[in-house]
Amino acid sequence: MSEETARIEPVVIRAESTDPQQERLVNAYEYDVDTWRKVLGHNLLFEWGVYDHPASPRPVSLDEAGARFFDRQLELAERNASNPLDPRRILDLGCGWGYCLRRLAQWFPRCPRLEGVNISRSQLEHCGSLLAEHGLKQRTNLYLCNARDLRLLPDADVGHDLVVMRGVATHFPPELYERSVAALADRVVPGGALVISDTLYDNAADSTAAITEDENDPFELRHRKSPEYFVRVLRENGFAIRDMRVLPSNTDVAHWLLELRSNIETHFPEGVTGALEEIRVAAVHLSVMMLCGQAGAYSILAERAE
Ligand SMILES: C[S@@+](CC[C@H](N)C(=O)[O-])C[C@H]1O[C@@H](n2cnc3c(N)ncnc32)[C@H](O)[C@@H]1O
Description:
This protein is of the alpha/beta class. It has one domain (11-304): Vaccinia Virus protein VP39 (Rossmann fold). The chain is 38% helix and 19% strand. The chain has helices at residues 22-28, 33-40, 62-80, 99-107, 121-133, 174-187, 227-236, 250-267, 274-291; strands at residues 11-12, 89-93, 113-118, 140-144, 160-166, 188-201, 239-246, 295-304. Helix 8 (250-267) runs antiparallel to helix 9 (274-291). It starts with 10 loop residues before the first strand and ends with a strand. The site of S-adenosylmethionine has 20 residues, from strand 3.
């Protein structure tokens, strides 16, 4: 194996404080890659899909729908940002198995520095192999780091111009969401952009409708946030909202969720437990909430004040 294709090893950022949720969440993601591919598709994107039904006469795979959604978010960011996007330092917070970092490297070929932060070592190891295989070793740093400790990332004097946060704040209790947005406010350059995808709930505090039936809640789905709260925290930390919309549509999100459920039931007919069972069950509850308009997948472009 050449030096260039050897895996990118994650740098471990030592925690300032303990996170009571971390171990449970890390365990929730701890299935092997083949198992996850059976559920999520080859690219292992784990944040919705755009099906665009009239424009899609043939069946659209999870990979296509997921990639289409991320591309749509990047197009919206380019269209709505105050200044042309030409980032020099990009952060993908909660970077999953690495697809988005690879896509960001293609989308912004001039960006010399792409960084992924994740609490899951196994995901980061997959990321490290994927990105090295695509010749991105020189441009990428991976950090085994909790969002709680973003302030400990190296080179605080070199700000980030673009931060992607897809599906990660979903797992955060409000205290961690507020702490990570405050840390980003210090790390993002004036005019820098946040591209966010998150699930937000009407009447988040009052609603008793179940999403999960698992009292252990491996994915920490109980931390529901309303659109108003989510945006208020961004604004209070100096981020202006440049674009905010329901994307993918509620029906596309339900479509995506039920495909995951169908994949689980087809590939594991003997049944599943733990985090996969939570996905299988939550897929129904969340789809119903989406279709009744009680929840929505929001795509947000926020910009740090100049
Ligand atoms: C739903 S997945 C989304 C993955 C990816 N962003 C995507 O678009 O497909 C959420 C990701 O956030 C990571 N994550 C969750 N809590 C985190 C935390 N406190 N700090 C860092 N990463 C976290 C998970 O390990 C996982 O990779």
